[in-house]
Every structure is written in structure tokens, then in C-alpha cells.
Design goal:
single chain, about 290 residues, alpha+beta, Jelly Rolls, 2 domains, 16-stranded mixed beta sheet, 8 helices
Length: about 290
């Protein structure tokens, strides 16, 4: 019985009109970056998608992801697990969006962040001898992580539960540090709780509640042939396009080809103030 139980009881190919040469080029670049990165999906219970460069696929066990890949789980997804070569593990719950190995964020304790959590549930697990890089959200950062930490980011609430091991939380953008003791819950603007209430623990994804063995070693020779999906629409990608500058800074280069689609381009033009770095793509002559 895990810690939670103890506490509670007590496709489609590219649409016609997209350049096939671009698709082949993108797939080749994504594969090379993923092989270098070594982040692999090792568990999947439900549906999820991966946007790596301009290539969007269904998520698949054994799939390797490059730095900057965007992963989104479905509303009914129980679990998606990511594993790193250094033994770091990130579990995602339902309706969650993360960027893998996000560029643009400085390292702490010699470790760069493992993921940027835009919204939803994430559990980051590291080891005291080999801490995980940790996690960054729009409101705070947890870097590095030598135990297990459960994080939720919603529209109006943010929580951090130090399941095992203490963790230092840095509030953004001020950088003010708050220590969270093992078993304690940080509840956004509320007081730090010595232990989380039972009703909050019951909200935690069930798959987070018990230890799950690592599987990366078993999948090291596995080839994942993920189904290619249509490129993301502006609406689908808009939460990331309107994210903080450090997150979206590289997007005009990564997603420039998407601006060839009239609907995507129209979305960029109508909300240019949310992502002004796209002006050079939309109006290269200026």
C-alpha cells in the first residue's frame, strides 16, 4: 500500500497542400534530436499526443522525445510516464501539458529542468544520489528534486506535495525560496500545510499513488512507430504560443512552416500582441 492509501485511509498524414519534403525533413531532424536526448515514454494508459518540431504524432510506449517536445495527455488519461537516462522520472496525469527538457531555463545544482508544466498533474521522481532536474511552471520552480514531488497547476490554483524528501520551491519571477518538508503541501497563496487534507489526496491521479518500476532499460532496443497526426492548429497550440517569453522564444523558428496554413496564419495575426516574436515571420520585409 502506497503513501497515498495510508494517508487517505487514515491518422492521418499531412494534409494535402503541406510540403512533403518538409515533412520528411522534420521527421529526420526529430529522430536525430530524440536519439540524442534519450527521453523515452515508458508507460501510457490512455491517449496523448506529442508535438516535436512541426511533427505531431500520437504518443506511444518506446517513443523517444527531443528537447522542447510538447506532450499533452487526454482528459481521461490515467498515466503517461517519461524516463531519462539519469534515472529521473516524470509521470503525467489527465489533461496535462508539458515541454520536455525546456531550453531557455538556467540550471540549478548542476541540473537543468526536466519539464515545464504548463497545466495539469505531474509527479517528478529523482534519487538522492542522482537528483532529477526538476520542474518549472509559470508560478514556481522546483530544481533539483532528490525525492518524489507531486505538482498540480490549474487556472486558479497551484499545489506542491513533497511526497518523499524535502524540496526547495522558488517563486517566480521574484525567486523567493520556500522550503517544503517531507509530507507537506504548498497550496499557492495559502499557508503551508504539514500534511495534505484527505480530499486533496483523493484528487491526485490514482496512478501516482503507488511505486511503478522503471522500464527504460527494457525498451532501449524498441522502435516506436507512432502514428502521424495532422499538424497542430493555432487553437491547439495557442496555450504554448501565448506562454511566457522564455518558453516561446524559439517557436517562430520551430513552427514557421505552420504559418503557411491560412487559418494558422490568421490566428497569429489576430493575436499578435500575445506573441510579438512572430511579426518577423508574418512580415519578413519589415
Amino acid at each position: 500500500m502506497g503513501r497515498y492509501h495510508r494517508v487517505v485511509s487514515k491518422c492521418q498524414m499531412w494534409r494535402p497542400g503541406w510540403k512533403q519534403v518538409l515533412a520528411v525533413w522534420a521527421a529526420t531532424c526529430v529522430l536525430a534530436a530524440a536519439q540524442a536526448q534519450g527521453v523515452v515514454i515508458t508507460q501510457l494508459e490512455g491517449e496523448a499526443t506529442v508535438t516535436d518540431g512541426v511533427r505531431r504524432t500520437s504518443a506511444l510506449v518506446g517513443q523517444r522525445l527531443g528537447a522542447g517536445a510538447l506532450v499533452e495527455t487526454g482528459a481521461k488519461t490515467n498515466l503517461l510516464r517519461l524516463e531519462w537516462p539519469d534515472a529521473a522520472v516524470v509521470d503525467l496525469g489527465p489533461a496535462s501539458q508539458v515541454m520536455v527538457s525546456p531550453p531557455g531555463f538556467r540550471a540549478r545544482g548542476g541540473r537543468a529542468p526536466s519539464v515545464y508544466l504548463l497545466q495539469g498533474w505531474a509527479k517528478v521522481t529523482g534519487q538522492s544520489s542522482a537528483p532529477a532536474g526538476g520542474l518549472v511552471t509559470p508560478q514556481f520552480e522546483l530544481m533539483p528534486i532528490g525525492g518524489a514531488v507531486v505538482v498540480f497547476v490549474g487556472a486558479r490554483e497551484q499545489q506542491v506535495f513533497a511526497e518523499s524528501g524535502a524540496v526547495d520551491l522558488g517563486l517566480r519571477p521574484a525567486g523567493k525560496q520556500r522550503g517544503i518538508a517531507p509530507g507537506a503541501l504548498f497550496n499557492g497563496d495559502g499557508p503551508l500545510l504539514a500534511r495534505p487534507p484527505a480530499d486533496w489526496l483523493q484528487r491526485v491521479p490514482r496512478a501516482f499513488r503507488d511505486p511503478i518500476p522503471r522500464r527504460a532499460a527494457q525498451l532501449k532496443d524498441r522502435t516506436a512507430d507512432a502514428s502521424v497526426l495532422p499538424p497542430p492548429t493555432y487553437v491547439e497550440l495557442s496555450p504554448w504560443l501565448a506562454a511566457e517569453p522564455d518558453v516561446r522564444r524559439d517557436f517562430p523558428r520551430r513552427f514557421a512552416a505552420l504559418a503557411q496554413d491560412p487559418a494558422f496564419r490568421r490566428g497569429l495575426q489576430q493575436r499578435l500582441s500575445s506573441h510579438p516574436e512572430w511579426a518577423s515571420v508574418l512580415n519578413p520585409s519589415k
